[in-house]
Design brief:
By secondary structure, this protein is of the alpha/beta class. The chain folds into two domains: 44 residues, no CATH class; 244 residues, Rossmann fold (3-Layer(aba) Sandwich). The chain is 49% helix and 13% strand. It has eleven helices and seven strands. The chain has a seven-stranded parallel sheet with strand order 3-2-1-4-5-6-7, sandwiched between helices. α5 links the parallel β2 and β3. α2 packs across α3. The longest helix has 29 residues.
Length: 299
Amino acid sequence: MSPFCHRCCIASTIRTIDLAFSKQDSLSPLAMTASNPYALETLSNLLKGKVIIVTGGNSGIGKSIVETVARLGARVVIDYRSHPEATEALEQEIGELGGTCFGVQADVGKLEDLQRLVQEAVNRYGRLDVMVNNAGIETRTSILDTTPDDYDKVLNVNLRGVFFATQYAAKQMIAQGGGGRIINISSVHEDWPMPNNTPYCCAKGGVRMLTRTAALELAPHGITLVNVGPGAVATPINDSTMNNPELLAKLNAAIPLGRMAQPEEIASVVGFLASDAAGYITATTIFADGGIMQSSPGL
């Protein structure tokens, strides 16, 4: 397949996922079925039977990932640390749509919780096919005012947690055979500085190299690792910006596409990467940033 055809295949798959979750009636799955039954059949089976853990799965980007992969046929384990009521509501939503999922309360900053999370997935579904390391926190502190507690808090969840979740997931995938996928929700800030958020950038930079290095180590076992690097996304973590018209206008002006991403736009990339269609992608980052990393002040 030529590079051009490969890019077309990727674009087509992601576009199909986006169409399936459009809120416009004309682009609903039922409408797609009427005009092209094969499209919906292919879509609903994209992740059929795959067992997927999503950390931080009951809010923000994680919630959209859970919804997306469930609708694509996956059996989903929703990791969460707090707000069990949000997890219960998400379980009910997915169940009503005919999906399969269950929640596990586990703090990704605690290694014993991570081990239990993987084991509960295997106990319920018999295997683990995809690990999505999505949970993350930030302190919005600079090099001068970050305390040791701030640093430890961010690095413990955003890097140490991702490292050992990757290790535990990979060991399970190797034990069961058949390879697997590990998808890390990183950030443009794995590569792009963000002053006054130094611990977060350090952690995401670490995830960048974790993915590239571990991918080479795990490739002989058929396990791929890919980062997804979102730019600005309309989630509660960015409420302070979204609720300030001046700050929001400034941010939108810096993004070539002129707006923040919606969580489901990041989730659709994860849905594709979790599928067999992405089997040759590893040791890299897919940036979904609206072009912000390439923007120029015009010089």
